């Protein structure tokens, strides 16, 4: 299932909202290229991650404290 690009957020049904949430939290699973991920090769585990919301601030703070 795809979400139409010309649809407004308020017009999405629950299934489409869940799909959008999953794409944002798990972009690699949906074909987003690795270079687009905002946390490539994490220093702790070497994994590519896409951070959202307060996790960006938390991980940045942890990185700065490590140095």
Write the layout of secondary structure elements.
Elements: H1 14-25, H2 54-66
Average pLDDT works out at 79
User: H/E series, N to C?
Assistant: HH
Main sheet overview: none
How far do the termini sit from each other?
44 Å
Gross morphology: elongated
**Residues in β-strands, percent:** under 5%
- Contiguous low-pLDDT stretches (5 residues minimum) are none
The proportion of residues forming helix, as a percent range, comes to: 25-40%
Q: Number of helical runs?
A: 2
Number of strands: 0
Radius of gyration: 15 Å
- Structural class of the helix and strand makeup? mainly alpha
TL;DR of this structure?
The chain is mostly helical and 67 residues long. The chain has two helices and no strands.
